[in-house]
Amino acid sequence: MAKQADTKTRGSRTGRPVMALLDLLGRRWSLRILWELRGEPLTSRALRTACDEASPTVLQARLTELREAGFVELGEGGGYGLTPLGRELCATFMPLHRFAERWRR
Amino acid sequence: MAKQADTKTRGSRTGRPVMALLDLLGRRWSLRILWELRGEPLTSRALRTACDEASPTVLQARLTELREAGFVELGEGGGYGLTPLGRELCATFMPLHRFAERWRR
DNA sequence: TCCTTTGCTACATTTATTGTAGCGATACGC
DNA sequence: GCGTATCGCTACAATAAATGTAGCAAAGGA
Q: Hey, is the C-beta of A17 within 8 angstroms of any chain B C-beta?
């Protein structure tokens, strides 16, 4: 496997940004975190509760990645919230909600 | 942690189907596979090539999951393609393409 | 001061993914 | 028939990621 300088952009070897985005969102809890933050900001622990008590290790890792991507930010008074960009991203896959209701596995 | 009979539906403990969907899509290569199949059907090896030579182990695992979910099907003459449902799902997060172009990390 | 909560981290265990190789089945040309 | 190529799919050891539990320092309230 060809080593790249930036290991954070797996799946973006084609240079197409959608691949990088798909890769970032395709990590465990990424989509869920964005989903849970769609409303008001949550503290790290409230987020953890919302995410079925996912381990703080991954949550913290995902939050860092999502922050570096510019989708999530840590408010001054504490608590994680979506940036305008993150809110926009969240809106793009919000139709999944209705889709999932019809799907129901 | 409360054990459930169905371990495949992690993240759906709330009973909300969107959680199950978010969890399924939040596994490595799930989103990418749907993305690559958005056009014409691909053989398992063509899909592997499209997915940056991802290991056939995961690809096969994801394909099985996506098939069980009813999003992907194996055509009679060979080759994987999206079901009408899968095509619908794919369409819901297709706006990500344009979003990613504006984002560009 | 004591107690609580904040964001965040250590670390050992468990699970998932990777990379490589190869299977049986099917279909070609020769 | 024979070799060769492809199909979907699997085994398996090595590596990377996630889990679960515990706990840190800092900030704030009582």
A: yes
